[in-house]
Inverse folding.
């Protein structure tokens, strides 16, 4: 399966959980942005989409909505399994997402990294964390998974020694099979 096929497959499954799911979403479409301004596209995004306002309360409601909460908790468990034993990664919990990134552009954003440099991985991590209340980073390969975890640990370390850093409390790191399997199993459970 190509990355594009993977995106479309996951979108179709996520459409059964969430009302607004977009592939290759431009978070600044319709905004007045300088023509020289960098504008990332998110591989997948789940709304509501905050284009002309904030949806902090709506995002909190989605964190509490039973179907969404079960799905996010399954993502958290996979993330925690991945970070165990790799550096000093903190275990995530759903409460991390209630008080983080109230000015997000979407409820959840998903960035998929395959054949990219570490600089692109940094960009994907920053964009996902800055633009989503819940940020999911999907590593296409084992080396990308390790790179995501090390980068998140590095940013945490910088903060702990009082250096300029970027908060990543809303990031969940999964591999492509974990995310696909969780989407599949969640959708199967919910349609039975």
């Amino acid at each position: 399966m190509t990355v594009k096929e993977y995106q479309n497959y996951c979108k179709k499954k996520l459409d059964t959980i969430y009302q607004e799911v977009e592939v290759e979403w431009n978070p600044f479409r319709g905004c007045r942005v300088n023509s020289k301004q960098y504008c990332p596209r998110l591989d997948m995004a789940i709304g509501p989409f905050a284009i002309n306002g904030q949806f902090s309360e709506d995002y909190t409601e989605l964190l509490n909505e039973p179907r969404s909460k079960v799905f996010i908790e399954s993502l958290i468990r996979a993330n925690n399994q991945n970070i165990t034993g790799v550096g000093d990664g903190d275990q995530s919990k759903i409460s991390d997402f209630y008080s983080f990134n109230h000015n997000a552009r979407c409820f959840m954003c998903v960035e998929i990294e395959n054949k990219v440099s570490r600089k692109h991985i940094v960009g994907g991590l920053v964009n996902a964390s800055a633009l989503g209340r819940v940020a999911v980073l999907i590593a296409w390969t084992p080396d990308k998974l390790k790179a995501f975890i090390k980068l998140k640990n590095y940013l945490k370390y910088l903060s702990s020694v009082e250096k300029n850093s970027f908060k990543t409390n809303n990031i969940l790191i999964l591999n492509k099979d974990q995310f696909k399997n969780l989407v599949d199993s969640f959708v199967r459970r919910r349609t039975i």
Observations:
- The helical segments are 3-14, 56-64, 66-83, 118-131, 142-160, 176-191.
- Strands lie at 21-25, 42-46, 106-113, 132-139, 171-175.
- The radius of gyration is 16 Å.
